[in-house]
Amino acid sequence: MLIEFSAKNYRSIKEKQTFSMKASPYDKDKAFQGEDKLRHREIGKYKISLLPVTAIYGANSSGKSNLLSAMWTMRDIILSSSKSNSTDKLRIDTFALDENYLDEPTEFEASFFLNDRIYRYGFAYTRNEIKREWLYERTRIKEQELFIRDNDKITIGKNFKEGNGKESMVSPNRLFLALVDFLNGEISTKILKWFKHFNIISGTFNKNFRDYSIDLLLKKDGKTNASKEFLKQMDLGFSELNPGEQDIDESIFPPNIPQKVKENFLKEHANEKIRFLESIHTFHHKDGTTSQKTFDSGEMESEGTIKILDLSGPIINTLVNGYTLAIDELDAKLHPLLTQKIIDIFNSGSGNPYNAQLIFATHDTNLLNNKILRRDQICFVEKDKADESSKLKRLSDIESKSGEFHKIRRDRIFEKDYLSEKYVALPNVSKGFDLIEAMNR
Question: Rounded to two decimals, what is the model's pTM?
């Protein structure tokens, strides 16, 4: 489970900003949880509680997507590091509105719960090299250093024996953690696997996950059953789904395709299959009888339905394995009740028994309801007017002034307060638009 993620000098994130999945101590009473709404998961011996869901709000261009992109970039650098050539450049995208930051390192850090341990791993880098890198492990007693890298100097802690003797083997543009994993280090391999299953995806390019979701429906195992039940509860309008696949052969081509084009395509995709998903609807005949009629789901169903079908695989895989999933624009094209249903599943004990986590960026203010999300499950991203940098704050950490400073009450009407700019600044769209006046300026 993700505990915290921090980023510095990345796109609109200038100074270090920390996104937290820690439950607020003010929101953990049973009366606010509901019968099956656990809303947080106790990590007992560490005396911390982690959230299964957090929603990220903010105006357009506030930096919501940049926060999720920072998570994806950290993950991508970690997973691709061991495959890099020594001359490869690192992916860099520094804060562009301050000359002092253009050549400064970008920094990422994540802390997470894994195999009864808490790990904290991070690195700072420029286009050409890793400037700093660190890994800590926390047991019941205290946090211990596993290794620290400062430019070309690497210090190995006593509990990271798998790193001994490998300090000189890492090139300036590669991560030491990835090198030790490549050489079969036990701890480093577990950590890379955690990042591999920390998935950050787009809610608008959902077609990217279609084949995976269809594969899951085809497997005929527990995940398949769970996926079918999930889609059934979404009430998407069809009576049944029929997933399938076919070989890539001559039959897939429309008429008049040049033979050379077909040959090249078949050679490039030899032994591959095309997945398809059909939806079955009730067809009414003139004589009053009915029958079942099959349609290509991509042609028959709405964009919202297709999105749910595409995302069903990543969502069920996350729930079954207890992974962490971040989705940018989860609510795009979806009815608010469908988005709420997904949140309720992750929030509940029965729907999410393996402590999976859902992080999502959204504009859907219908979800700003204390029956759906607690104060500590709502994160705001706001642009600082002075330097246009992104700043993060959770609703549970915001203070309101009414005689004296105090926490926002948990029974407030969050949506109303948000839209009235009680928590963060919203786009200034109140000024009237006069078309004729604008044309004659």
Answer: 0.88
